[in-house]
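Replying to the earlier thread about multi-chain prediction with a worked example.

Input:
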Amino acid sequence: MPQSATVNRRIVLASRPTGAPAPEHFRLEETAVPVPGPGQFLLRADYLSLDPYMRGRMSDAPSYAAHVEIDAVMTGGTVSRVVASQHPDYREGDLVMAYTGWQDYALSDGTGATKLDKNMPRPSYALGLFGMPGFTAYAGLLDIGQPKEGETVVVAAATGAVGSVVGQIARLKGCRVVGIAGGAEKCRYAVEELGFDACIDHRGDDLPQQLRDACPKGIDVYFENVGGKVFEAVLPLLNVHARVPLCGLIAQYSGVAPNAALLSTLPRNLLTKRIRMQGFIIFDYYQRAGYFAEFFKEMSAWVAAGKIKYREDVVQGLENAPQAFMGLLEGKNFGKLVVQIA
Amino acid sequence: MPQSATVNRRIVLASRPTGAPAPEHFRLEETAVPVPGPGQFLLRADYLSLDPYMRGRMSDAPSYAAHVEIDAVMTGGTVSRVVASQHPDYREGDLVMAYTGWQDYALSDGTGATKLDKNMPRPSYALGLFGMPGFTAYAGLLDIGQPKEGETVVVAAATGAVGSVVGQIARLKGCRVVGIAGGAEKCRYAVEELGFDACIDHRGDDLPQQLRDACPKGIDVYFENVGGKVFEAVLPLLNVHARVPLCGLIAQYSGVAPNAALLSTLPRNLLTKRIRMQGFIIFDYYQRAGYFAEFFKEMSAWVAAGKIKYREDVVQGLENAPQAFMGLLEGKNFGKLVVQIA
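Result:
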């Protein structure tokens, strides 16, 4: 059934996956639409963002963020519309970015909600280029990666919500940018549309050699969000004083075992090459005063000038969110994955 | 035989060790004392510094520094005296710190040589507290570790040339300092003489539990120079936003295999706890304009005020350098290890 005025559809965590998530780990339910009390407003979702970090929330392993309880709604950011309000600052029709989860309706008292900036090119961009993924790319690359003109920057998941922005900003900083992506079409897009200097299809069996050929002067910045065999190919090519901002390990999220033999050489590599490897989560950067506003302003200027391109992969219907999310972890999306709910 | 005016004793690399070095990897030779040509001066060593990094130079594995060739003199820093000079800037009797290696005599044209500061408390201190080890402690702790008041700093090899200085500077910055050392006597010294808050004997079989007890608020800075089981005990205790300056892996230098199972969790730990792990070698910091002078000035003030204590372990005679060096890698020294040659 489509979105309705009287029923709240929601997708809950039915059970915890041990490896890759499967349909049985999710369950679609219907409940009543809640009614806002004093100081509250009711949000109806237009767009739901799907992101790799959600796999971590399905697990109860210790992490930086609370996990989703069994039978609770899957967490997630949405662009939603205020449809009823008893809150003085929010009026019917306001567009809001909020963490209302995988469902049609949610109440809010304003906590964690942000009204969409009037300069947002499209509402759904608040979930990607101008939201957490774009900010992740910006902060991780510039604050930790610190790319300098003429350096070589390698980015995995090169056409994804984060990687595509990392690569384009690095190009703007005068770097040689080498992407890694799954399939010839994505690689073509990275080079021809995003302006990367090269892009390597990791599905080929000669990733290490291809990467070596594409990085004749080694690698100065590796933006790490996938782990696995891509990191294996990158590690031997890292230059002295390389920086490795680390914001995700997608390949490990679904149970791909890390390569222990390779990782046993990691401290020795960090030492002899004086490499800085630093994990970060974007929530920390939201706490840094003025930093998101700085990002928003700079990104707006780049987009207005046609210097940053952005692609969305829009899936229709809340009921298709689980399948789309499973595909995301396998790299099946092409561009920032969002679910159009309304 | 002792140091002589007519014979140059030198210790060369006889063969490359695969694990711990042994006597057969070194050879004591005698050669003629060289004669300085125009623009050169002749140095005679008073003190030779022995440091863990030298184990790396005995190997021909790729590294940041050139290895010692077979039959070549072992590299090392010395405090030496000018005994003949055809160089306008160096006069007979000048005390110089230079990398003249494990031998009595060497020629220099001034490259890499530094006249000893007049304020040096003792000449041999130029090889330790006021030299590479002290500067390593200072730069690694302050530039990478960035300890803040009230944080917990853990340092291995706590009574060594680097560790003892790291811990004392961290105390000056208002941190809780927990050392790790080999044996009750060193631990007593770390607490009673150096002022550490606690020190754990890693020879006990319950290092992980003892460390946990000594760090009730977790670990914010771990100054890594040993690797091995100490790092295994530290890793689970690292706090969110911990910093790990990494300047050595002594336990691995002599063939202790890294724990692959543990290290396979390293990227995940760096990510979820947003840890910064950064390798460094002190030679890079010598290139930073004014930084060594800043260190020298600040350290001089601390020593003059009695705020930093320093202990040397002085071995007599060049011929005993190999045995002393083997002991160093096993933690048998107590304080900065130097060989008095003259």
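Chain B has two domains: 7-128+311-340, 132-283.

Feel free to reuse this layout for your own posts.
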